[in-house]
Amino acid sequence: MLQLPDDLLAYISTFLSNKEKKRLRSTSKRLHSFCTLRIDRVFISPSYKNIEVFRAIADHPVLCKQVKEIIWDDARFEKFEPDDQEDDSLPEERVRNKVDFENAREENLMSVAGEENAFVQARASGFDPVTVEPLSTEPLLVEEYLSLDESFDLYNRLYEEQETIIRDGLDVEAFREGLRAFTALQRVTVTSEAYRPNIITPCYSTPLIISFPLGYSYPAPWPWMPETVDEAHSEISLEDIKTHWHGVAVVLDALAKHDRLIPEFVIDTRYEQLGIPYQLFDSPSDILTNFETLCRRGLRRLDLAINTFCNFRNPGLRQLPRGQLKSVLAKATSLEHFSLHASSGEHAAYDSHRVQNETMDALSAIPLHSWLLKHITLSSVPVIYSDLVEFLRRLPKDIRSVGLINVEFTESTYKQLLEKCRDELHWTAGRPKLAIAHQEGGQLESRKLWVEEDIADFFRGGHNPFEGRSRGNWIQQGFGVLRDDFDEDFCKSNVPDPMYHVCTSPGVYRVKTREEVAEEQRQREGGE
Predict the structure, then answer these.
(1) pLDDT per residue over 444-499, tens digit each?
(2) Which helix (H) or strand (E) is 489 found in, with range?
(3) Which of 103, 244, 475, 486 sits 20 to 30 Å CA-CA off 517?
(4) How high is the pLDDT of residue 188?
(5) Could you tell me which of 361, 42, 376, 375 has the C-alpha nearest to residue 188?
(6) Which residues 6+ apart lie within 8 Å of 475 measured at CB?
(7) Total tally of structural domains belonging to the chain
């Protein structure tokens, strides 16, 4: 490689990841000069390690100009009491001790050790026994993991550091410094998913996660979850929101007061049933005021995840249009990209009466006429078919893309929806681009079947990808691709194994007979 000319080395380095560049930089001075690191996003949370790296990048004269996104990890370590020091001030069911910690740790060990490597293999194969693929790294042996006492002590130290940082406002101070230092900043993301789907394959490799010693097993933090259904639908005080949605409150306050507009604000839940509480939009508060200020200043992209705490009463979606959400969103007159994820779940639409009377006003909380909308995505929002069609009809004429993810509705099917879009809304293959995603049975929850190009083909006169199967509400085999919310590189065609299936017509497959399989095997062997 060192024999290559300078211009070719420079070109090759543009295709390398930072991890690969770091390895090459350590091998020679020449490669060190060509393999320049690019850091376009940084992480922050109530962690000394994350804050240390965040500030080091902010203080660097070159790297600080590369950062385009700040990701605030809002996952929080919980308090686990030693067995002999339980907190008597908490209800018995809320006390978490070393036994609870050990149980969570054992679950992690079971998922990666030896023959119990089921989770890792499932993520590689999507529960498809034909295509099980191992991870690139070998799982650790159980004896290589830290002991229970070592893991418990480290976790408690991280928890104490976290509480100290929040109490002293060190994370807030560092974040404000970053807003000033990162002059190319375009987006701020607050996420609940840094440690998901599990600690072996975290969604984000934050400096803190990277720094953990080999063999460290611990309960993966997952924020924004109420302890009980009653707690979810009780009145949430402003202080409770600031405590449990710490990152959201801090980020909105800092962005509203920052002297330069950061045009994109994202709440990232990876389509999990999480988000900011719907109660936030019930009454005025400084958090809501900060959110309104951010919208008014010229926000161009907003990915909003709202936890409606779905249950049989389901007041969350019912409350959205009655609260202040619509009036606040209407202030974002420069908005071009909007995504709404509601934690209502895809099964809410099956109760037609409840859907009709309680949840469907959620679409009316979206002020389409106020925006410069180019892209819109709805996720886990149960709708009535006629309301959805009317909503799509009211979209701007120059809308570029529409996404419907786990969106369920009554009274009709996706087959009919596509026909309606083509025949009455006059949507074509190029305008707008429509993508539909469903979680398919038998797959990991993070894996969804997406149809996009097949819909464009249908608008051009091709086959309807929802034709025939389950009365037109599910994607047929042979159409769409399987993708993973946590793994951007995962992509698998929705086609049965051709060794055992044969396509008889578009979207229709049958299992081959034993004789057919045997005959094809003989032909292959004869060809060899």
Answers:
(1) 778 899 999 999 999 999 989 987 655 667 888 888 889 989 888 888 888 776 66
(2) strand 487-493
(3) 475
(4) 99
(5) 42
(6) 436, 438, 440, 449, 451, 465, 466, 469, 494
(7) 2
